[in-house]
Amino acid sequence: MVAVLAYWAIRGLAAPIRYLLEYTNTPYEDKQYMQGDGPEFSRAEWMDEKPSLGADLPFANLPYFIDGSVKLTQSNAIIRYIAEKNSLAGSTPEERAMIDMIANEVIDVRSRFTRLSYMKASDFAAFRQGHVTYFRNWSVKMEAFLKQRGTLWACADSISYADFLLFELLSQHVALESSMLDEFPLLAAYKARFEALEFMRAFMKKPAFSLPFNNKTATFR
Q1: I need a labelling partner for 216 at 20 to 30 A (CA). Which of 91, 120, 164, 185 fits?
Q2: What is the model's pLDDT at position 55?
């Protein structure tokens, strides 16, 4: 049975989920909803369908994921489910805790990036450099973490779900500021290593990879 991942026609919260599904060779339908153009920016394409999903998805929201009898909302729950199903979430309490720690670090930073992206243009211009500085300061710590670990991926020599989240975060910030990783050779090499993975080379040629990071109401897309 083909799984269904539903989200807006953007990368947003769904990008790491798409990466995981591609990496694990999971057959899936990438169902994308389109937000209308301004000034209304209608969400009718999703909102008109949302009530009909109530029986199966009592917390119906985007993204949602259906895999047979498993029906989930909340991006982190979806990511963890796919990761657990494919042995990408650690095999010991210590490994799981380390992976969760990095994943939650990424989620915290991503939330700040998302808030910045959806600010009105004047506020975005005022706060952009402050976020760039914040991310570079955070990258100092992440670079030191990678150096201390000395592993191929963020938490171990084997890839985990945290790596799919971290890669997308780095991609977002390089798009925001092309020189973002110039002072962080380990993070730059990490991003390049992820992009060199066979599944990722193939996925980068697909339309889903070229979607904007954010929806049409965002100043930074």
Answers
A1: 164
A2: 79
